[in-house]
Amino acid sequence: METMNGSQFKDMLENGAINLSNHYQEIDALNVFPVPDGDTGTNMSMTFNAGVKEALNSNDTSIEGIAKVLSKGLLMGARGNSGVILSQIFRGLYQGLEGKTEINGLELAEAFVKGSRVAYKAVMRPVEGTILTVIREAADYTLAFANAKENITINEVIDKLVFEAEESLKRTPELLPVLAEVGVVDSGGAGLVCVLKGFQLYLNGVKLQRVQADDSKSMAATQVESEEFGYCTEFIIRLSEKGLTNFNEEALKKSLSRIGNSLVVVQDEDIVKVHVHTLTPGEALNMGQRYGEFVKLKIENMSEQHENILVGNNETSQKPAQDYAIIAVAAGEGLSELFKSVRCDIVISGGQTMNPSTEDFVSAIQSLNAKQVFILPNNSNIILAAQQAESICATDEMEVTVLPSKSIPQGYAACLNFNPEADAETNYGAMMEGIQSIQTGQVTFAIKDTVYEGLEIHANDFMGIKEKDIVVAVPDKLEATRLLLANMINEESELVTIFTGEDVTEEEINVIEEYVDSVFPSVELEVIEGNQPVYSFIIGIE
Which candidate, 74, 193, 187, places its Cα nearest to that of 137? Predict the structure, then answer.
């Protein structure tokens, strides 16, 4: 294929999405930690499917237009760090394809280099041996190859890109020792290779079919991928005298297409009817009002037509005006109620096993009516998606700030330090102080045999994880918890907060309470029923 048009580009994207979906479980299994929350493949698949869905629904026939819609869909659907980086790769690809109706091989190679550069800029501290390395090396080597070969084809570019990506992926353990110790390659890089190989298969005439795995996680992923969020916005305008002169149906369509989809614009003399699905209905109304006065308007939140992912927040209508609002992420009914009790306005359901998307944060932010919104991701793998939402939603009227809480105890401490009577700067400092004062530990079970930093771990062992290090692995849950507490508590420790999981019994709670009281009598102990999945105990020490 010497050149590629928009229709072929769509088909290639769909093949890449299907290939990633068909292999997401294998990518999840590459998780370095043997914990039951390996979700890189799930996050990347849900992210890419969200973008490709928008691209396939687009009526645009140009490469540029399709890439733009794809980029926006990926941005809003991005989940987890790997999903956010994937979205940035294709955001850069779109920038490299601007102005192109069709593309040749060299132009495609140049666009992938742009994609790698944008992805690197999106990460504050890029780590080599990850998906960033794979896209950079693959894109750079491919462009050099393309520049050296006259009239290179689309097929040759993708073949070279896949080859170099696979070679780079093989080298990731050389750059990240933890990968070498566990005996795996980088999971994010593996996900990217799946997408590129899907592209290659399409160019070789292989149209893939989606294989639906029969497990709850896959079913959940499919459910979220198929949901449509945003606002169904409909209005009728009677054109003013000036509006009749200036109104241009195609221009309004083009403007509205930048902020939404499912677009219909119909003019009947001095009446214009508009229907659009958008995350920013106010912006759509402003576009229409330039031409006249509203005769009728209706805005409905489409999220309410599906299972709402916001725990206890099924009513998403605009809230009363307020100075501050706090959004937190937590899994489990107990943790959700806990955060609401410490002034959180919205608790997004999510955490280790299901990372919320950028769109989830955007929907939550836009349902608020506050001058200052603080977001507590409470997980290191959710921070980037929250930060993308921050960049989308922040306006002169609403300041959005992501506080980099990496655990439930950190988020809880931040909320306790919040003072509704203080100004935003003071609250930011106090909440950050709360986050930085907390040391976090977690107890969960191992899903496979492995060795981590010299520690031998067996499947079904209970592991004590201190911050990001596995410090203990034993067959007994309570023993693992006691050993972890002994490792974390020192003479400077004052307060120990333990959040109990859904698998923990009252008897087990009593055993841990007695242990702390007898061995560490000088510390204050607080036990909170979190009912969180996956983690039997989450521990915060201050």
Answer: 193
Q: What is the pTM of this model?
A: 0.74
pLDDT digits (tens, 9 = 90+) for 269-313: 778 878 777 777 778 888 888 888 887 777 766 554 333 433 334
Rg (CA), the chain: 25
For residue 51, the one-letter residue type is G
Domain 231-305, CATH: 3.30.70
The percent of residues in the chain predicted with pLDDT above 90, rounded, is: 57
Residue with tokens 């926006």: 72
| Rounded to 5°, angle at Cα 27 from 22 and 28 | 105
Longest CA–CA separation in the chain, Å: 83
Pick the closest to residue 446 from 168, 5, 33, 90 (CA basis): 33
- Name residue 267's amino acid: Q
Indicate the burial class of 413 (C-beta count within 10 angstroms; 0-12, 13-18, 19 or more).
Answer: buried
325 alpha-carbon distance from chain centroid: 21
DSSP type of residue 357: B
Distance of CA 61 to the CA centre of its chain: 28
Give the three-class secondary structure for 380.
coil
Q: For the chain, give me the number of helices (H) and strands (E)? A: 21, 19
Q: What residues are paired with 293 via a beta bridge?
A: 238
Q: CB under 8 Å to 489, separation ≥6 — which residues? A: 496, 520, 523, 541
CATH 3.40.50.2300 for domain 3-226:
no
Return d(Cα 49, Cα 70) in angstroms, integer.
10
Give per-residue pLDDT as tens, 402-442: 999 999 999 999 999 999 999 999 999 999 999 999 999 99
Residue in 32, 484, 29 with CA at minimum distance from that of residue 217? 29
Cβ neighbors of 191 (< 8 A, separation 6 or more) are 20, 24, 27, 40, 41, 44, 45, 82, 86, 131
In this structure, of 18-22, 27-31, 428-432, 493-497, the range with the lowest mean pLDDT score is: 27-31
Give dist(CA 82, CA 47) in Å, integer.
Answer: 9
What pLDDT does residue 410 have?
96
β-sheet with 469-474: strand ranges across: 469-474, 462-466, 439-445, 537-541, 495-501, 524-532
SS (H, E, C) 64-111: HHHHHHHHHHHHHHCEHHHHHHHHHHHHHHHHHHCCCCCEEHHHHHHH
Taking only the tens place, the pLDDT of each residue in 112-146 is: 999 999 999 888 788 899 999 999 999 999 999 99
> Which one of 3.30.930.10, 3.40.190.80, 3.90.1150.10, 3.40.50.510 gives the CATH number of domain 310-436?
3.40.50.510
**Strands 231-239 and 271-278: what pairing?**
antiparallel
The phi, psi pair for 438, rounded to 5°, reads: -105, 135
CATH code: domain 439-541 is 3.30.1180.10
- For residues 79 and 224, the answer to whether their CB atoms sit within 8 Å is no
Tokens of 74: 């990926």
| Domain boundaries, given as residue ranges, for the chain | 3-226, 231-305, 310-436, 439-541
**What is the bridge-based pairing of β-strands 462-466 and 439-445?**
antiparallel
Take residue 399 and report the two structure tokens written for it.
């300041």
